Automatic annotation (TrEMBL):
One of its GO terms (cellular component) is endoplasmic reticulum membrane. The keyword Chloroplast does not apply. It is found in: Membrane. This is SMP-LTD domain-containing protein. Coiled coil: none annotated. GO terms for molecular function: calcium ion binding; calcium-dependent phospholipid binding; phosphatidylcholine binding; phosphatidylethanolamine binding; phosphatidylinositol binding. It comes from the Eukaryota. It comes from Strongyloides ratti. GO terms for biological process: lipid transport. The chain crosses the membrane at residues 6-24. Its main location: membrane.
Length: 252
């Protein structure tokens, strides 16, 4: 019978353990090698496709700050009947008197007799939330808006009954939510403005189209542009407070 002292047995166990570990590691690496190669090839293929198709990708993929706002457009669709009612009031109380004031004497009787805002609302194209170089007490959002709906207006002036349709408007709107509050409703107010004068166009119909009144056409364009510029084109803005003690001049 052979007898081995303990130091010798420890050396044998260490050698056997090392051999087993080496064999196990090599087998594991052999199994992982094909997977690593496949993963590397897939990554390279994806990066290649992104580089080749970068120009074809939508803005919200190339620029993470720009988001699609399909949900927001659905929200606007639900609100549109109420926005339409407000628009009717605005046209009658604000636009109509301004048109009368700027029209020649024979056309001072300008009056809306039909206002139909249609069922196609304006749409938001792209939206960007600013996160850099912005104060901690505000949120700034820019969005592209466009309107090419089926609104239809009928007016009476100088004995003529005419209409206006095919109204289009495009521009970039800036929303500033400020100040942010540590209590409900969290946001103290919101200011809304166009970054620059939006593009506005329309088409005259019925008798207006037949007689082709340039004074009326030019007056409407001038008044709408002037109203937009004075009310909500930067640096002017519309401010809506959400709490009673918020200073309207604090939104900058």
């Amino acid at each position: 019978m052979l007898f081995f002292d303990w130091p010798f047995l420890w050396i044998v166990f260490i050698i056997i353990g090392y051999i087993v570990k080496t064999i196990t590691t090599k087998n594991r690496e052999k199994k992982r090698a094909p997977l690593n190669t496949l993963a590397s090839q897939e990554i390279e293929a994806i990066l290649t496709q992104l580089v080749l198709k970068q120009n074809d990708l939508p803005a919200w993929v190339q620029f993470p700050d720009t988001k699609r706002v399909l949900c927001l457009n659905k929200f606007i669709q639900q609100l549109w009947p109420y926005i339409g009612e407000y628009s009717k009031k605005f046209l009658i109380e604000v636009i109509e008197p301004q048109v009368r004031a700027q029209m020649p004497l024979p056309f001072k009787s300008f009056k809306f007799i039909k206002i139909d805002m249609g069922d196609l609302p304006f749409r938001v194209g792209e939206l960007k939330v600013y996160t850099e170089n912005v104060g901690k007490d505000k949120i700034i959002i820019d969005m592209d808006v466009s309107y090419a709906g089926n609104a239809d207006f009928t007016v009476n002036t100088c004995g003529f009954i005419g209409g206006m349709n095919q109204i289009t408007l495009t521009g970039k709107v800036r929303w500033i939510f400020q100040p942010l509050l540590p209590f409900a409703p969290i946001i103290g107010g919101v200011s809304v403005s166009f970054i620059e004068l939006p593009t506005f166009d329309f088409n005259l119909t019925e008798m207006f189209e037949i007689v082709n009144l340039p004074q009326l056409n030019n007056a409407i364009r001038t008044i709408v542009n002037q109203q937009l510029r004075d009310m909500c084109v930067l640096p002017n803005k519309i401010f809506v407070p959400f709490v009673s003690d918020v200073d309207m001049t604090s939104s900058k």
